[in-house]
Amino acid sequence: MRFKVPQNVQREDQILWFLTLRQVIILVVGFGISYTLFNSLSKQYDLNQLEVILCWVPAGISAIICFLKIHGISLFKFVLLQLEQLLFRQPRRRWVKHAGEPFVSMTTPFSMKMEKQEAPQKMRQEEFSSEKVRSIAHILDSDGVLESQLKE
Fold this sequence. Notes:
By secondary structure, the chain is mainly alpha-helical. It has a domain at 14-87. It contains 7 helices and 4 strands. Helix 1 (21-44) runs antiparallel to helix 3 (57-67).
């Protein structure tokens, strides 16, 4: 073999020591915002220690986004997955045995409302004569047109 084929192609390439390009961009943006905020405020005001710490909060947030992993997933991807779950997917329904209150209907069931009707009588063999069956078959074959209608 002349060329070595990489086995883990899903892993991002590291460009600076152990940092990927995505991490470098996030850190540069976060630290850039913090430095700009600190620089502009320190020229106008005399900042105390708490205000200096608050100026560097965006840098800390960007560092947390870059390096914190939850269940092996970066915080950035985890937040995006949670937003997708919240906004676009239907909630999962879980069934728990004997949980909640049993359903009690305040109305009477439909079968009890109906008055007792006579049970349908069984069709007798005599009611279906061969002549009736032929006439029904002829009506079905002629798409519902009777012979008397055809003559007219």
